[in-house]
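Below is a filled-in request sheet from our internal design queue. Each sheet records the structural input a requester submitted and the sequence that came back. We keep these sheets so that new team members can see what a complete request looks like end to end.

REQUESTER: design group, bay 2
PRIORITY: normal
MODE: inverse folding
CHAIN LENGTH: 114
BACKBONE (tokenized):
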């Protein structure tokens, strides 16, 4: 029984890997340190000039696709291999991007009302 429990725990912790351990707070640091903000903006909001309008905040891309792009990009964005950006930092960056709150609805902003 004890062994089964330990095994299940190991599967939970190790099997889920990055997603389980990801921290948005560390992700913010890694995002800054690795310069993603230079093209994607500090909140992943993107820019027509530097990221071709690509928005990263709350990206709909599943983590695997996100990771695969960052590791192997061969377009405008330089690829970030594991030697310079660890899997753990990349998972945290993804968590940070998912944690960015949505902009408020323009109709809810008093100053914008006629
Ligand atoms: C030199 C500018 C630049 C930097 C620095 C940069 N990117 Fe990008 N990124 C781009 C551009 C431009 C695109 C649009 C695709 C293309 O043309 O390469 C893009 C696309 C992406 C995409 C694909 C998103 C989608 O919805 O298709 C992901 C994911 C991404 N970047 C993550 C990152 C992360 C994480 C970092 C930091 C580790 C980073 N980028 C740093 C320029 C940059």
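RETURNED SEQUENCE:
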């Amino acid at each position: 029984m004890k062994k089964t429990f330990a095994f299940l725990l190991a599967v939970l912790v190790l099997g889920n890997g990055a997603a389980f351990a990801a921290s948005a707070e560390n992700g913010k640091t890694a995002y800054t340190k690795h310069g993603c903000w230079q093209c994607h903006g500090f909140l992943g909001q993107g820019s027509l000039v530097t990221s071709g309008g690509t928005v990263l905040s709350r990206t709909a891309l599943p983590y695997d696709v996100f990771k695969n792009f960052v590791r192997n990009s061969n377009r405008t964005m330089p690829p970030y291999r594991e030697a310079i950006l660890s899997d753990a930092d990349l998972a945290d960056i993804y968590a940070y991007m998912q944690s960015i709150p949505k902009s408020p609805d323009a109709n809810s902003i008093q100053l914008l009302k006629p």
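SHEET NOTES:
- Helices lie at 2-15, 17-21, 24-33, 36-40, 63-72, 87-99.
- Residues 34-36, 38-40, 50-52, 54, 56, 59, 61, 66, 69-70, 73, 75-77, 80, 85, 93 surround heme C (CB under 6 Å).
FILED BY: M.R.
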